[in-house]
Amino acid sequence: LNSLHCFVRSNLLEVFVTGPEKNNRVGLRCVFCSHINRRLRDSGSAQFPRTTADIYRSVCTWQRVHFQNCRYVPSSVLERYRELKECDRTRGKVRYWMESAKKLGLMDNTTSKELTVVNDTYIDHEEGSNTPNSQENDDE
After folding, report:
1. Residue 46: which domain range?
2. Radius of gyration of the chain (CA)
3. pTM, rounded to two decimals
4. Is the pLDDT score of 77 beyond 80?
5. How far apart are CA 135 and CA 140, in angstroms?
6. Would 140 be classed as within a structural domain?
7. CA–CA distances in Å: residue 125 to residues 23, 27, 67, 68
């Protein structure tokens, strides 16, 4: 298991669901800038994988495009990320991300061809999604 990807999953990204006006899409976003107005965020702060198998590639894209450029990431976190990246040269595994998604209550919806939430205990919902955990956010 790649220690860098464990760190990314546990400390850098959060799963969220957009509101109904954005088709309740499941996404991954940066925990450091998710509360900031989207116009002030660096590009690529949110990724929207279509399937659990796509999560690995979305996370890699997010690391390359957004994370290293996000001005809201504390320097200590960036330093730890770089240490782990340097120390652990093993590649992450698609299966790890698929299994993690399942544990978080995500699954592939073969009808809509989108990720679906089957258990939202760990999922953040944007305002307007009619859940008790709703919070205002402006992704996409």
Report:
1. 3-125
2. 15
3. 0.76
4. yes
5. 15
6. no
7. 12, 10, 22, 26
